[in-house]
Amino acid sequence: MPTHSFPINTVSRESLRSAVEGVLAHGGALALMYATDEGGQGYAVNAVCSLPGESGFTTFRAEIPKSDPRYPSLTVNIMAAHWYERQIRDQFGIVPEGHPDLRRLMHHENIPEGTHPLRKEFAWNTKLAQGHVPYPMHAVEGKGVFEIPVGPIHAGIIEPGHFRFNVRGERILALEGKLFFKHKGVEKLVEGKTPEEALPFVERVSGDMVVGHTLAYVQALERARGTTVSKRTEHLRCLYNELERITMHLFDIGNMGGMGTGFTFMAAQGFRMVEMMRRLNETLVGHRFLRGAIMLGGAHDLDQDARAKIRETINRIEKDIKKVLDIAFATDGLLERFETTGVLSKEAARAYGAQGVPARASGVAIDARHDRPYAAYETLNVAVVTEKSGDVAARFRVRVRELAESFRLVREIIADLPHAETATTFSRGSGEALGWAESWRGEVVDFVRLTKEGRIERLVIRDPSFCNWALFGELAPGNIIPDFPLCNKSLNLSYSGNDL
Question: To the nearest whole number, what is the mean pLDDT of the chain?
Fold first, then answer.
């Protein structure tokens, strides 16, 4: 077994659920579930939990015999486990007994039964036969109830996802989503690759969240190999993370107001400022979406001129967005569409393990930059922004307030950037570890295991969208159909990041 740098508690499969419940009873949360093929006769199911008041995670690992691949489901009492367990069943064929919904999650109808691509014996280039496995979607029955299918192909420039509405009139009674049309097999494709060879795959998991994913990945690898990076690198990584957050919060502010309600002034101004940030990114690192900004053992360095360009752009955008927001908050028609729409309760946010803006807008004060500080965040004193109402208006206000906090952080970083080399030699060898980063969508959590040759044996990637897509089933009912696009934009979830 390779070395690791985070606590692992080996438990029996029968006691896995009670072990996690014990952490949750003391204020912890289920952060990730994944499986590994241990070779020989066994698999392992791993439940990663965050601990209140502590800066890391603890993992409960249960061995699962290949001759009897099953264990008592955690979802019975822990709602946040529901998608993880379905994903593990698809990938490994390990059955969570007692799970209330054992339909496929990642596999579509055309995937034959018995296909489990993350088992070691499954080759990445396997050509599958055509399957015809039914996928029944949930439905509401009753007089005057109709089903409205939306997608998976949409009218706009948007990735594929299918939504099935059950409605009476315009009022939504129930909503279910079907995703994973964008499944690319990233976790399988990187098996056997060096960390450097896998990096471009990670950068492209979700095109608008390059820094968030790359940062979690490289920190997992550095932790697994005991590699320490310079203080300058740590600060630069935080800088790029905040620049990505600014870019995408500007996008969401414009998209929610302009494309979600028809208040096109906001879309025009928001997207104009997003373009300013994209051009700044290209000036800094040579790529509009910040590919190449984060690297193993380092970060793209910035000279004085680049830092001055950041300061100039941020100052201009801060003034411009204030004018736009003054108009927005004085527009009754806009606020009426935002307020009381798409309410997500605090209890539901906790139960589902919601991440990022949706969680914080419902009063759940979680932010890895504060709770589990990494890179230079421990010295930056990040303020966790929360709202209470849990509606579209709350998610809008969280983004506005976080934008101001990111402006502050960027200025602080470039004003006092430590002097040091930005590249560190990345050592080779075996090891396993977790890495995490608070992206603009929420916390990314990665697990990596390296072979003795330093190649990737297992990489687990958890995009925050994986935790948040199921929230539609909670916040959509009771709203009218025309408000669904607004609810959707207020979450801004990634299809590609979720589907991997």
Answer: 93
Residue appearing with tokens 């490994």? 92
Please answer whether residues 451 and 430 qualify as being in contact, where contact means their C-beta atoms are separated by less than 8 angstroms.
yes
What SS3 class is residue 485?
A: helix
How far is it, in rounded angstroms, from Cα 500 to Cα 496? Answer: 6
**Cα–Cα dist 440/403, whole Å:** 10
Whole-angstrom Cα distance, residue 233 to residue 301? 8
Q: What pLDDT is stored for residue 4 in this prediction?
A: 42
Are residues 500 and 187 in contact, defined by beta-carbon separation less than 8 angstroms? yes
Can the peptide bond before residue 2 be classed as cis, meaning omega within 30 degrees of 0? no
**Nearest CA among 167, 131, 133 for reference residue 150:** 167
Distances, alpha carbon 79 to alpha carbons 57, 72, 162, 333, in Å: 19, 14, 23, 37
- What is the CA 54 to chain-centroid distance, rounded? 21
Class of the 186-499 domain?
mainly alpha
Domain 1-133 in CATH: superfamily? Answer: NADH:ubiquinone oxidoreductase Nqo5 subunit (3.30.460.80)
Residue 470 is encoded by which pair of tokens? 């199921």
How far is the CA of 477 from the CAs of 174, 288, 377, in angstroms? 5, 38, 38
Closest CA to 1 of 432, 476, 483: 432
Task: Quickly state the pLDDT bin for 52 (edges 50, 70, 90).
Answer: confident
Q: What is the pLDDT of residues 362-415, one digit of tens each?
A: 999 999 999 999 999 999 999 999 999 999 999 999 999 999 999 999 999 999
Whole-angstrom distance, CA of residue 164 vs CA of residue 180: 15
Whether the full predicted model's pTM is greater than 0.90, yes or no, is yes
Q: Which residue ranges make up each domain of the chain?
A: 1-133, 186-499
Predicted confidence (pLDDT) per residue in 420-444, tens digit: 776 677 777 889 999 999 999 999 9
Q: Which residue has the tokens 């034959």?
A: 112
- Which tokens in the block code for residue 241? 């993370």
pLDDT in tens, 152-161: 988 777 889 9
| Residue 1 pLDDT class (50, 70, 90 cuts) | very low
Beta strands at 431-438 and 443-450: parallel, antiparallel or unpaired: antiparallel
Q: What is the side-by-side strand order in the sheet with 431-438?
A: 431-438, 443-450, 456-462
Q: Which two tokens stand for residue 30?
A: 């289920």
Looking only at the bridges linking them, the beta strands covering 8-11 and 29-37 are unpaired
CA distances for 33 relative to 44, 83, 276, 432, angstroms? 11, 9, 39, 15
> Which range scores top for mean pLDDT: 85-94, 123-132, 478-487?
85-94
